[in-house]
Amino acid sequence: MERIDYDFISLALATVGLFFICCATLHKKPRLILEEAFGIYRGGLRDLKSSVFKRNQVVMGFVCVVVAIVVNLVGSSAAREGGFMNRFGTPVQVVILLAGMAVLGGILNYLSRLWSKRAFKRLVFEVVTDYQWPFEDNMVLTREIGKLLEIPQRDDDTIESYVARIRSHLKIPHPLAQGKPRSGRAQRLG
Hints:
single chain, mainly alpha
C-alpha cells in the first residue's frame, strides 16, 4: 500500500483556506458601491446576508488552514518515503493540485452558501419573532426578505397574501391573533 502524500494534501488545504479568507475580506461588489453612490440603494438585508456569508467563509478558511497545519505535522512525523504523488511528474502534480483545490473550493463554497442561508434565515426568524415585526408596514423590506428567502412574487399577490406566504415560510404565526385588525380590503402588491 502506498503512503499518503501529506505535503500535497496540506498544501492544497492551506491554499483553499487562504482563498476563503481572502474572499471574505472583499468589502462590497462594485455594483453595490455604485448603487449607494447614486442613492439608488436604500438599505436592507443584503449587507446582513453578505456579512453572514463572509463570516462563514472566514471560519471555513481558518478550519482549512488549521487542518493543513495538522496534516503537515502528522506528515513530518511520519517516515520520509516517497508518497503517492511522487510517481507523477511535476506538470501532472501541478494539474492534480489545481484540480483538487478547485474541487475542494467548489464543494466548500457550496456548503458555506447552504450554511449561510440557514444562518440568515434563523437570524431573520429570531428578529422577526422577538420584535413581532409588522411586515405589512414596510413592504420594501418585506419584498427584500421574500427575495432573499426565495419566495417569488406572483402576479395575483396582494400584500396580505404575500406576507402570509413569508410568515408561513418562516413558520411565524399571523399577527391577527395578537389583536391588530386589518381592513377587509385586499391591497395589490405591486
